[in-house]
Design brief:
With 316 residues, the protein is an alpha+beta fold. The chain folds into two domains: 19-101; 115-315, 2-Layer Sandwich (Beta-Lactamase). Helices cover 55% and strands 11% of the residues. It is elongated. The protein starts with 18 loop residues before the first helix and ends with a helix. The relative contact order is 0.09.
Length: 316
Amino acid sequence: MELKISWQLGRHADGQATTSSTYLTTIASLVSIATPVATVGAILLTGKSSIPVIILAVYFCLLTTAVLVLLTAQEVRHGKVIQAQEVRHGQEMEAKNAEVKTATRYQLAITPLRTAFGCLANASWTVIEGDGSEEAFMRNLEDSLKALAHAYSIITDSPCRVSVKLTEAVDGSPVHDIRVSTLCRSESQVESQADDRISNNTDFRAIVEDDLSYYRCNDLVAELAKGYQNSHWTPQAIGSGAIKYRATIVWPIARARPLGMRNIPQREVIGFLCVDTQSINVFNDTFDPPIGSAFAGVLHLAVHRYRARQMNSTDD
């Protein structure tokens, strides 16, 4: 008599048998072969049937114990596999929900973005074909920045501010000594109107000196240890936490470069478009910079004409 058992128990999730299950399988196979041999040998040598019965009883006890152990171990392993799958599924669902929420925020931002570009078009019309009224230009520009701030607030799920800065080079001064002043803000909150210098602000300096398309930082406070500079951040303000924003994206306001043009000369940066917020890690480097780049490109024409009118009126 020969009993043979084959099972797929005691395996990892990848299908590889564990060491313990391999040992138990080998032992069970050897017992299955040895038991009938021992039984027949005992009958032939002793001529009695009581000893073989004892051997068979012991065999079945061992076999039953081994099967129960393997079934218990398999149940434990199966439970761990199910638990790991549930955790992985939960993580996948969270990632998908996050993607859906992000896509929804960008969809909701389309309306204020359309308003922002529309108001900017009105500001451009005022200085290009309109009466050139500074009041009308600034009103349309402010409405445009408010709408852009609203759009970024929806996108980042955090209150955002937008401002437009103008550059003014001092005669004979190096690039890093160019003055930067605020032309317009999305909010009416009054801040210091003191002129900044490009050399005292890491974001402006990186754009002008390194010729960057934009400067983005999702945690400005953390960048302080790496040398980040901001002319409005005094040691007292940093120490007390009285800083108005902790993440930002800054774009140059400059003429767009023709595609495929070689030996491109150094661009003239006439200003900066700035978006900032108190929250950290909210700006997406894939989707958020292109929006501001498009807006800054359209803004260049309006600001350029506005500056030209201001210079002409000063000369007159």
